[in-house]
């Protein structure tokens, strides 16, 4: 049986996506820090299925060809190949076609279908993006949470955890990186 994992880079004040018009991003994070990026790659290497919303998929599809970039660092090439090996399910009512192999579109998020997928999977699954993750959290599907907290306060946007949901979590692991990024792994009790 696979576990459903929710993981995002977040600002220090808990936002996984900045407010519209804020082009400054979430601050220094995995995309800038080889140590953090390598850790993320190792942590999620064995994921069998990624669950995405359209916007997160459009961000992540970069990994379909990242290994072929000129002078690509080894940790980037490895993450790209691991991402390519996994199944991807994009939950979208507007996406017409996908730009990556091993990818299918689902028009709605069906909690029962995700439960069945978890029950029959030999590998963990991730739900990526705070909007889709909010649906999975509200349905009681998420088993593990990985926050990669940057040193930047952004003041608004979409929070990592959805409003109106109470969770009782157990801290499983924590790690700090030289860049100031903090990783916290929590598990649902």
C-alpha termini separation: 17 Å
Rounded Rg: 16 Å
Poorly predicted runs are none
In CATH, the architecture is: 3-Layer(aba) Sandwich
Overall shape: it is globular
**Structural domain tally:** 1
The strand order across the widest sheet is 5-4-3-6-1-7-10-9
Describe, in short, the structure shown.
Residues 4-181 form the Bacterial bifunctional deaminase-reductase C-terminal domain. Helix content is 25%, strand content 28%.
Model description:
The chain is globular and about 40 Å long. The strands form two sheets. Strands 5-4-3-6-1-7-10-9 form an eight-stranded mixed β-sheet, sandwiched between helices. It has a two-stranded antiparallel sheet with strand order 2-8. It starts with a strand and ends with a strand. The protein has helices at residues 34-43, 54-60, 74-85, 111-120, 130-138, and strands spanning 4-10, 15-18, 49-53, 87-91, 103-106, 125-128, 144-149, 157-159, 169-176, 182-188. It has a single domain, classed as Dihydrofolate Reductase, subunit A (3-Layer(aba) Sandwich), CATH 3.40.430.10. A hairpin with a 5-residue loop joins strand 9 (169-176) and strand 10 (182-188). The protein has five helices and ten strands. The protein is α/β, with parallel strands linked by helices. 25% of the residues lie in helices and 28% in strands.
